[in-house]
Backbone:
């Protein structure tokens, strides 16, 4: 091959490599992108089908139930308007507690239960994930009481 | 009284920084030696006052002065004294003061160790560092004064977040900041060169050691943070692609590119404008990182408590610095480049590829980090990008990078002839591929394409890093020995090879297992037996804990006993997991205690992490390589 052809070949191969790499990167991006969905929307059925998403809110008091001696557990999460049941099997983060903020990654099961594969709780007493705080702020007043008109709108109650 | 002295010292430091930022620059412009000599004295003076201020803050912590709001929020009477000191930089205000202190220390170092460098250049560098310091001091004084009083004083403090009560985390921020802030020296050198329009190979020689030292500290800081996350966050990962981790990683990637690009500028006088652009980028990314961490706009476990005015201030500062630097760049850089050429097969080509791949990697990390922000601004909903994406995307530029690394080291400047090059590299290449197949198959019993690539690449880097030092060692005395600079490069690359081995093996063969466990029960994970012998209560200085005693055996032979704990800190009432780890050079056995499940059972996470120590060992050796290379004779010569 002449040097000119060699150069063309090298450039062609490089472009092909870049194209494949870019394709892989974008596909992986689509697969790993997760939406945050408010619990009220989850209850209303407005969530991504057939793919993972995140929910967040407060763990409802007295809602944690577990099978004795097993890792499987259920609890409810609320955005102070609607509630959704969450199922999880695994070790919980240190700051997971009733009445505290939590974010769960997972997907919706057939029976309206959110099946979490990952639970995140905040690392700091005073810190709450901004999206959770924002979601809660829409439905509560400053003293963390549900707004009077919001509790009636939820279908599940 | 002491806090007011600290506050006052900070204001005095600001006025000195103003002098330092204005007079030497004017002096350099007019070529007035008297005005330029102000640089040195003001740099020293500013350091003294910042040091007094930082000292006062630490003093307030050690003395439990809860009439200072920041102390009351982040300390507590029964906190061990060592942690009272480190609590000073545990949150926004104090860590900003530490940032300023480190900037003043770097400036003083530049003012002290600059023999051989033209006075005009040094005056400009110190002047620019002074202007940066003005920005940070204003930020501290206007939005984040750590000395603000709390009246009436609190009887006791709210305690330091228990996660931060750890020796690793006490020294992680200082190391990281020395690295971050160190890039401001490279930045100042770049701006100074652009102001004068004069950039030669000597400029690169003067800039390089500062950049390498900053990079070295950043490497150590990131590695230490990763190690802390591994044992202290409790769940055994070593890198989470969290926004704040990425914020420290991007300057590191660009800093690495900068070191390599500076090598070309120093040796061959090429890549000048590119080197300038990287110097600007490294520091800008450090600032961007600060903005992301402190403004709270990005969801992260590391995020500081948020305050929008602070976010605006840093964003404004970032804008001034980046836009100012880029305008100057657009104006001055085109005139700088020299036209010397190089052959396609030369060290220059490989270093160019290194730079392209590192910049691509940085761009990918930046995209993934900012994607949630951008999508939300476009009303596309609230998204997050999971670690699997970063893992895939990052591998795309990294695989060619590590493969080319071993070749590039043995390629001559200007032009390499093909024959000797192939003769030298073919045996190491074959050996590396064989190791890539045999290592996973023989020790771990499984092999895949990705594993072969990872292990072969690691072996390839290790072998090719060793060629030069081993040859130089076997050669008799008197013949030309390897330079410190070349040795440092070999050592740093060796560290990179060890790091790649660690990452490859632990991601392929690491085992994580969440289980329910009762007293006396034995579980089998990764060929080891874990027996839960006992659950008991223990008492620490400022916490109470539940401790599990877990005996680890292999084929019924005793290996180790680990004692994972769940601690409850007495003041904040938070629960904290303290993992029980049995470390050894080729694997970690890791047990973390979860919750009580009822019926006498506890949840536990058991992990088998082969070769994970190589990740941090590799990073440490990389930093060591940096240290070796800055002791090269040509840097010492210019310093004496």
Residues:
């Amino acid at each position: 091959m002449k040097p000119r052809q060699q150069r063309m070949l090298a450039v062609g191969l490089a472009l092909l490599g870049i194209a494949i790499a870019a394709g892989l990167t974008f596909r992986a991006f689509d697969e790993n992108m997760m939406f945050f969905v408010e619990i009220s929307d989850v209850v209303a059925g407005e969530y991504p089908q057939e793919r993972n998403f995140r929910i967040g809110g407060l763990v409802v008091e007295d809602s944690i139930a577990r099978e004795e001696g097993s890792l499987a557990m259920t609890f409810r999460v609320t955005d102070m308007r609607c509630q959704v049941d969450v199922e999880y099997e695994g070790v919980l983060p240190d700051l997971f507690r009733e009445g505290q903020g939590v974010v769960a990654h997972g997907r919706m099961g057939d029976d309206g239960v959110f099946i979490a594969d990952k639970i995140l709780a905040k690392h700091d007493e005073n810190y709450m994930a901004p999206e959770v705080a924002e979601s809660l702020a829409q439905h509560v007043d400053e003293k963390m009481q549900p707004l009077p008109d919001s509790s009636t709108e939820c279908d599940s109650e | 009284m002491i806090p007011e002295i600290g506050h006052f010292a900070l204001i005095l430091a600001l006025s000195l920084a103003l002098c330092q930022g204005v007079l030497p620059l004017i002096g350099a412009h007019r070529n007035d030696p008297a005005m330029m000599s102000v640089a040195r004295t003001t740099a020293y003076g500013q350091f003294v006052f910042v040091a007094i201020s930082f000292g006062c803050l630490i003093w307030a912590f050690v003395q439990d002065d809860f009439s200072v709001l920041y102390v009351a929020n982040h300390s507590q009477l029964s906190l061990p004294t060592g942690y009272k000191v480190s609590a000073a930089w545990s949150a926004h205000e104090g860590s900003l003061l530490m940032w300023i202190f480190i900037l003043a220390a770097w400036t003083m170092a530049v003012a002290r160790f600059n023999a051989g460098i033209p006075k005009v250049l040094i005056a400009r560098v110190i002047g620019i560092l002074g202007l940066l310091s003005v920005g940070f001091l204003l930020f501290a004084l206007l939005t984040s004064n750590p000395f603000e009083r709390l009246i009436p004083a609190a009887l006791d403090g709210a305690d330091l977040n228990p996660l931060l009560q750890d020796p690793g985390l006490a020294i992680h921020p200082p190391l990281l900041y020395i690295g971050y802030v160190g890039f401001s020296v490279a930045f100042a050198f770049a701006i100074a060169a652009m102001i004068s329009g004069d950039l030669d190979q000597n400029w690169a020689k003067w800039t390089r050691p500062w950049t390498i030292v900053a990079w070295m500290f950043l490497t150590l800081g990131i590695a230490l943070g990763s190690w802390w996350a591994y044992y202290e966050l409790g769940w055994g990962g070593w890198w989470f692609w969290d926004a704040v981790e990425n914020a420290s990683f991007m300057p590191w990637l660009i800093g690495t590119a900068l070191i390599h690009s500076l090598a070309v500028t120093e040796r061959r006088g090429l890549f000048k404008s590119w080197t300038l652009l990287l110097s600007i980028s490294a520091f800008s990314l450090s600032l961007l990182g600060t903005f992301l961490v402190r403004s709270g706009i990005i969801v992260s476990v590391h995020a500081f408590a948020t305050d929008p005015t602070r976010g605006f201030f840093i964003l404004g500062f970032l804008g001034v610095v980046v836009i100012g630097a880029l305008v100057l760049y657009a104006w001055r850089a085109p005139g700088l480049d020299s036209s010397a050429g190089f052959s396609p097969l030369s060290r220059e080509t490989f270093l160019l590829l290194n730079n392209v791949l590192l910049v691509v990697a940085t761009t990918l990390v930046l995209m993934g980090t900012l994607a949630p922000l951008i999508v939300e601004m476009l009303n596309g909903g609230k998204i997050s990008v999971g670690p699997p994406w970063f893992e895939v995307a990052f591998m795309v530029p990294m695989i060619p990078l590590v493969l080319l690394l071993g070749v590039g080291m043995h390629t001559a400047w200007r032009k390499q002839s093909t024959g000797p090059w192939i003769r030298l590299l073919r045996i190491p290449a074959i050996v590396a591929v064989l190791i890539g197949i045999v290592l996973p198959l023989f020790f771990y019993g499984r092999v895949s394409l990705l594993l072969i690539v990872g292990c072969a690449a690691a072996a390839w880097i290790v072998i090719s890093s060793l060629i030069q030092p081993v040859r130089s060692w076997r050669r008799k005395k008197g013949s030309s020995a390897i330079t410190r600079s070349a040795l440092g490069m070999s050592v740093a690359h060796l560290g990179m090879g060890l790091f790649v081995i660690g990452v490859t093996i632990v991601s392929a063969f690491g085992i994580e297992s969440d289980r329910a466990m009762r007293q006396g029960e034995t579980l089998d994970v990764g060929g080891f037996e874990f027996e839960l012998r006992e659950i008991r209560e223990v008492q620490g200085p400022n916490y109470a804990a539940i401790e599990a005693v877990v005996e680890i055996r292999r084929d019924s032979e005793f290996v180790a006993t680990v004692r994972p704990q769940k601690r409850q800190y007495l003041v904040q009432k938070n629960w904290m997991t303290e993992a029980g780890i049995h470390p050894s050079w080729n694997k970690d056995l890791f047990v973390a205690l979860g919750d009580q499940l009822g019926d006498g059972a506890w949840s536990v996470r058991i992990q088998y992490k082969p070769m994970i120590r190589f990740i941090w060992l590799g990073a440490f050796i990389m930093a060591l390589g940096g240290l070796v290379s800055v002791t090269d004779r040509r840097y010492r010569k210019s310093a004496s």
